[in-house]
User: Fold these one by one.
Assistant:
Number 1:
Amino acid sequence: MTNPMSTAIMDLPEQEYIMPGTRTCAGCGLPIAYRYILKALGPKTIVTLPACCLTVLHGIYPRTPIAVNAVNNTFASTAASASGLVAGLRATGRGDFTVLAMAGDGGTFDMGIQALSGAAERETDFIYVCYDNEAYMNTGVQRSSATPSGAVTTTTPVMPKEQPKKDFIQIMEAHHPRYLATTCSSYPGDLYNKFVRAKEVKGTRFIHLAIPCPPGWGFATKDTVKLGRMAVEAGIVVLYEVDDGEFSLTGKSLNMARSGRKRSVEDYLTSQSRFQKMGEEGIAAFQKQVDDRWDQLMRRAGF
């Protein structure tokens, strides 16, 4: 199990695998997270990714700011591509590489669930990361099953989304992966620790990565880290890991559980234009969703 507290920023490796200048939107949370993911996994990493914001980050062939190997695949086949890479590496005797499959919530919660479920059931040896910005951001901010209730997208223009966000983390835990974790781009120490641990483990590892999105959520680009921290501080995103079946809170969420302090969701919701149609009744309903899940996880953690 990893240390439940985060690695200090000054103790992170100095080696960089993202060069200056990517094509992501201003304030994007994805390159923040990806920087520390690659620091944790190192140069012998092969990334496979579908059409998504990460593809934009990787750039247009033949130039890329990323200093590891990468394979582009179709939207629904990220886990299938990763399975093929694992098999190829095994066949050629190169067991020192880490295969990293990485897709957004649309390519994971929706289109990619079949391939991912099959690979996880077979215990295929790769790390799968869902970077979750809660909509199809790369194609114009369309609703996904990860979009929370009360949010407005380009495919929910008349009224906010009524259905709650799919609990995909619970779906993946039902596959009994060797390692499962949640993290957020605003907490690089916690993120780094979990990818270091994931690299050590064999079999399927699943990491849910919360990523704030300025254009899709409707907030100032300078507030990306702030919004991620607000999500964690309100219990909307809970930082934890399940390592060989053992559940543990980590980082800020562990500190919150010990102190018993959790901020309300209202500041988080009113900081984003996507929730502008959510009235008092909607905010109260959202708060109840968050509180119910928080209480469930606190009981599981023994608090």
Note: DSSP finds twelve helices and eight strands in the chain.
Number 2:
Amino acid sequence: MIQLYIGNKNYSSWSMRPWVLMKQAGIAFEEVMVPFDTMEADANFKRTILALNPAGTVPVLKDGEIVVYDTLAICEYLAEAHPDKALWPADRTLRARARSACAEMHAGFGALRTHCGMNIEADLRAQGQLILRDQPRVRADLDRIVALWSGLLDASGGPMLFGAFGIADAYYAPVCSRIRTYGLPVPAAISAYIDRVFALPGVKAWIDAALAEKTFVLFDEPYRLQR
């Protein structure tokens, strides 16, 4: 069976993407949780993951002798291995748009990711107000996300970005979480899309597990002393 190595569900946005994709699409896999301790070379997390992935990051997918790391590479591998699951849109033009949207997330939105780290359990709405006040690049990232999602939802008619659930929705699920955690203001149509994402069984399963972790990782939460 495929194994997926992930970090803490409360914090690991990159782990969330392929986990939610497989869970929602009905692709069987074994979860291997490697909790964050520190990012030092001799930490248990680093030792465990470096044995599989020379970059030392999660997620890592292991399918027999095949090892795939990097979220986008994992999603592409799964789409190729499970063509019946329609993880990308069938239409070539829409498929190109979906890949572009995922690549934009993969390489972009650095300010949002830096200042609004994923934390499913926390209520950071007060911090979100300060971040939006003081960080123009975060405001620009949020504006771009709203524009991107609005255009895709208008074109597809919903309920997901390209009609049916797919890689693009899994890719942006952690962004939905960030928007909620930090109370970032979005239009009603975007808020409704976030509600639909959170209602997906695969996303709900991840969030429920994240809330049950009860683990505090200091380097992931520089804004408070305890959970």
Note: The chain has ten helices and four strands.
Number 3:
Amino acid sequence: MLENRLLLGSKSGTSPKFTAVREKLINWGIFIVLSIIWGSSFMLMKVGMKEGGTYQLSPYQVASLRMIFSGLALLPFCYSALKQIPKNKLFIVVLSGLMGSFIPAYLFCIAETKIDSALAGILNALTPLFTIIVGIVFFNLKSNKQKVIGILLGLVGLVLSVTAGKTLHFDNFSYSFFVVLATIFYGLNVNMVGSQMQNVSAINIAAAAFCFAMIPAGIILFSTGYFNYDFSNPALIQATLAGGTLGVINTSIASVLFYVLVKRAGIIFASTVTYAIPFVSLAIGLYYNEPIHPLRLVGLGIILGGVYIVNKQKK
């Protein structure tokens, strides 16, 4: 019901100007909520893999818990989703779950064993670039000079933010590639949702995708020996709760909102959510007294400029 209300167009009796303003406000509201939810994901991964305690979950365990809890959250909708999704779209839905959530979940957790959460959040802003590249190469996406300039400007800010006040060692740099690879999968998924599943409900896409993803995630979690741990230990409970929060809020709920945003505002606008994520990551870092280099803030300001150019409509 929530999704239907978000997707509803203008009603009779409302002026076109009022309707346009209302639609933009709803789109930006979803944009802001997604930025906050996904921006906090990187710190939650760190909490799940926190060092120094009796237990330290592996990246595979945290990612598996994330996928399992996301599937459990949407399990009540799975049966209905499977009945409503056209049979010829079911494979695409499952593939969307793998590329848009399952594989990136493991890649990000592996990366954060060597890089900090703020850097992961910043690198995540590569998603709009790969969204356009993948769209042009595989999905016949028509872009324009304005959008290309905006995304390139965002990448300039990205580079400045990554390099400001911090030297990347080879180990950190190599593990950053896992985040880059995850953004490529995000770009593939965004284009696939936008071009192949316009007539499939967002909640149905998420429910079917994550319920199927529970199966390989459960196998991976079992094979790592997670169920042999002492569950009376508070450290294990805290790490498990971090993975559960990632699954229910940062994956299931956020994914439904993201699919809604793709349908409402298009793939380019939806993918630029990742530009705002570093601000949330850095804000969390400030809360935990992490030093923030001023040039990193300048870089993020440039990124916002790129977001504005990408989404500015020509008169």
Note: Residues 97 and 209 are 4 Å apart (CA to CA).
